[in-house]
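Posting this for the archive.
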Amino acid sequence: MAVNRSPAVLGSATIATIAQEVGVSAATVSKVLNGRSDVAAGTRARVEASLERHRYRRRARRAPGDGQIELVFHEFGSDWALEIIRGVEAVTTLTDTHVVLSQLEGAHRPPQSWVDSVIARRPLGVLLVMCNLTDQQRQQLQRQSIPVVVLDTDSASVASVPTIGSNNWNGGLLATRHLLELGHRRIAMISGPREVLCARARTAGFRCAHEELGVPVDPALIRHGNFHLDAGYSYGIELLSRPDRPTAIFAGSDLQAMGVLRAARQLGLDVPGDLSVVGYDNLPVSAWIGPALTTVNQPLYDMAGTATQMLLDLARGNALPTSRIDLVAELIVRESTAPPP
């Protein structure tokens, strides 16, 4: 006579359950859970699949204040990264939580070796800046009860990954609308990398502002930089050496805008008399350079603090009311913009 077996409750599986299902030892399952490398790839894949099927999670959980969080940048970017670090530490110092800082040398996905080392350290959580995990890596950390929050300046996110961002499309719209309202009609843009979503969103806002006023965009005046000084300088020289040079340049970052200012000085152009320049980020230094930079305020400090608080809430086992928060970007008008000559 056949016996009806009720399906196992999701999340109730033990290491022994997983081991029996896959046909391996409990020690092998434990090695996979702890990120050990001495497990055959095929075996690891079967164990990972079973763990995910059962939604296995470690039961032990440490309270914030007893450990540390991992703060991971895709790359360090001068004052840009410093603002984020300051925002994170403003929250962690209140909870006596330590911060482990690392960067991926420009990559937007960490290698598996990094995930394995995080699992070995068992932090309270991981805060990723302008980078993300693969689905498999995210599942590995979830099984260890290591929450992940992404601080990303783009406008896209996956519902399952708590993300803090800002409205980049609106930022691009505000910056360009300001220049158009001043009377500029030949506006260049030095955006960020083509593959970075926040750069594409800012460029879309740039185009939309032109469409609002019926002003055509000259594609020959759009460049894709790297958000750093060198791109602003080199593209600034190139654009401002044209016989039909632009009367204004919208740079996708304050650092690129500073590169444009140097290019203008080298070519003997006055800012804002001959050329208007708008940046993006509102780094503290942007108010102190000459001329003080008109820029879009992206509240990096507040974004970082909000993301850190979300991460600590998850580490306490608290559910988040929303998985996506976009903070408002606003235009800060200073001395680097004026009507065209």
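Confidence is low (pLDDT under 50) at residues 1-10. The chain has three domains: 15-53, 68-166+300-327, 168-299.
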